[in-house]
Amino acid sequence: AQVLALDHSELGLSYTISSSWARADSRFHALFSARAELLEAGMAETYQRLGHVLCHEPSYLEAHAGQLEAAVAAAPRTLAPLAASAARVRMLLDHDRLADLPRIAAPVQVIAAAGDILTPPELSEAITTAISGAKHVTVPGAHFHPLADPEGFATIIRRFIAEADNKHHDL
Known about the structure:
The protein is mostly helical. The chain is built from 9 helices and 3 strands. It is globular.
């Protein structure tokens, strides 16, 4: 959403940025480098299992244990080629648009999950601070909060779109 709003602003009237970052900090670099190293070492199952722990709340892990364990078993196939998956993870380290964000003129909503270990709320808060007038919403849950509460997530987005649309018509 950041890239679209900055580089292709004609494509959207408003933007929601959820569980994101604009510039990787040292913690993010350490975590994502370690995740890439797991893939480069051929440890697809470990990468997938760690991803579940980092991205889901404990209650979601319990409720979906069978499905998540099947994803772990399938990881060597679904993440193949592992070198490409590792390169994708490393690519995330290069994302740095923080200095560009003040150029975004469209309405922006930034959603952060209070328990997000993968992209902690502070990273989302930096996005909110950088974009004039951005709305910040904190939700309960972890990185994959939209999977845990799809209706709640959809409600937040619908509400924001309606507010942005009303402001657009008021102009």
